[in-house]
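G., the chain you wanted modeled:
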Amino acid sequence: MRAPGSKHIGVAAAAYGAAYVARRKHQAQVKELEASLQAKDLEIEHARAELDRLQVDELEGQRHELRSNVKALQAQNERKAAKLAAAEAHERRIKEQLAVLQAAVIARLERELGAARDTAVQARAAGGEAAALLARVEAAERAAAEAVLPACFLEHRKGPLTGGRAGAGTAAALELDRATAQYVREAEQLAALQPQLDRLEERTAGAEATTTMATEEFEEALAAASEDAAVLMANRDAQAAAAAEADERCKRLEAELTAKAELAARVEQSEAALAAAQQENSTLQAALAASADALRLEVDLVASERDAAMARRRAQGTRKAGAPPGV
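Predicted structure as tokens:
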């Protein structure tokens, strides 16, 4: 026959054993979960730190490189703009110089052509005078050649003549002397005009040579200005192409900056996701702590029941020890 209270003691012992096993199992699960959470936290922190370091280093490097590229492109664009402005100013100066040169050459040509016209008019006038004088000389020569010298004129040279033949010879001699004197005067005038005619011819030839030289200089200057203009146009085209290329590079850099900004946004989203995961881990840890507290309360309750059962057992044993025999 079992002693009174043995049933309660067995139930309490079984409950205590079950509670102890459950407590140990729960503690093991809690420790395992805590270790897993700590490992996850460490892994998350390590991954986040590594990701932040890599992203920050990469973004800083890319930002520095992009800033350097942008500054270099800005400086290059400023230099190209300065070169383009200088080329345009040089082109304007060349055009102004060309216009001044054209005006000067045209004015000089007009002056020289006017002088040549005046020289030609003077030459024509002097030539007309010389031609008229020459015609008069030739007429005098013909008149002298055609003058009839009668035989009595020759006789008059030898001796005096008498009668009408003597008068006729004297008249013919006088006419011949007058024609000879006029021929000599006109020949002297022609000889005096000949140096003027030579100088007029020289001036006419010099004016023609000067006109030819001025025309050649004008053509050379025009060709040189055309070459300079062609070079300037080629430089302008090259600078325009370089500016277009710089604009294209700036657009590519802006696209890269936009991509980097999108990457930074994705990084921020990843950080937000990490923060949410950490918050979830904190909530799970709080839940585990609450579960552990409940388990401790349950264990304390079981322990209290066990202590109460043991106290009742000791009290029953004490009463049995003090009771009279046969009770």
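Residues 122 and 128 are 10 Å apart (CA to CA).

Shout if anything looks off.
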